[in-house]
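@here heads up, posting the sequence + SMILES for the pyridoxal-5'-phosphate run so it's all in one place. Ping me if the SMILES looks off, I pulled it from an old spreadsheet.
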Amino acid sequence: MAYGFDTLQIHAGARPDPATGARQTPIYQTTAYVFRDSDHAAALFNLQEVGFIYSRLTNPTVAVLQERVAALEGGQGAVACSSGHAAQILALFPLMSPGDNVVVSNRLYGGTVTQMSHTIKRFGWEARFVDIDKSGDISKACDRRTKAIFCESIANPGGHVANLPKVAKVADKQGVPLIVDNTSATPYLCRPIEQGATLVVHSTTKYLTGNGTVTGGVIVDSGNFDWSASDKFPSLSQPEPAYHGLKFHETFGPLAFTLHGHAVGLRDLGMTMSPMGAFQTLMGIETLSLRMEKHVANAKTIATWLEGHPKVMEVTYAGLKSSPYYRQGRKICPKGAGALFTFRLKGGYNACVKFVDALELFSHVANLGDARSLVIHSASTTHRQLTDEQRKLAGADSDVVRLSIGIEDPDDLIADLEQALKQAKR
Ligand SMILES: *Cc1c(COP(=O)(O)O)cnc(C)c1O
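bot reply: prediction finished. Complex structure tokens:
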């Protein structure tokens, strides 16, 4: 029998430690693992036997986290890594060669816009930005060298919800995988694989860990994509020269992407998650559903209150009936539209800065998805490197404030917002 979400978030991937019986997952703070003998070592290096060689590739604590997130997302396997941005690079790495492109939504986390529009060019990769609501535009942007389509389920920070089944249909037609960044929604609120995604990436830094302690990332593979259906994905379908001619898809089937991620991606790019980081994220995931329920309930209460405030022009939360994404949100994220939203403050840039400085309970930080409530003025911080047009598209104009609602008492949060809104006027 398949376990439910609340059971999986505590048990998936973990078993009592075979050496000691320890019930909680130990932190395997080791770099290397003793081979039984030379034949064992050779079998491990040939990928003929599953096991641990060196912690840049795999580690038992990290492996539990990988299995757990894969189970929560309904995937076949996962690759954990050092940050959400590392996850995005490691997701594209097996798919892309110099000269290839990825078609991406123009509504993305600010750091992702920068990574995609500038940094990946150095690898000879190109990102083509499109309005992900328009299937025709996505198709038009695709060509022979397109290797993936990338979007966020709930886009950070503008409260945009992507119509995943519709985007997946376009990806299917183009013969490329759909990669969904599910950071803001988490698998509790949204399950992209059930809606047609091939790969799901996360910044585990956010809700999965849930208390702002470690950076991390993970890529989950659905195992559903046929990498050998075309000649588009030679790293997975053709002999891999960095593994004496091994064909990953032919050899490992639905685990091809995951094992390539460990055996080539992590081995050669080295964006590895530490065992301590994996342990802390595992602790967070044990209470994910409980926290997300409270995050969503608080976000709804506060967004509704702000919408009625005379100093507030607009609240972009997909959980509000006034949002153009309300109905889509109910379909794509049936358990709630997350706890991250923006609002526009009368008085523009200066009022926003005053408001942020006046808050006491909310912390002014460049983070989201923490148990404590956070605030940021995106235009002067996270989205500072973007052009005016990119900022507008990302929903981060100069009069926009972003809130990441925590799990405190909603009355206390509202009282803090109220006193800060009063001070923003002066
Ligand atoms: C934070 C974030 C990232 C980047 O993750 P890091 O762990 O900070 O590298 C990517 N996508 C979204 C939606 C995020 O919120």
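MO: The chain has two domains: 28-284, 288-425.
MO: One more: Residues 288-307 form the longest helix (20 residues).
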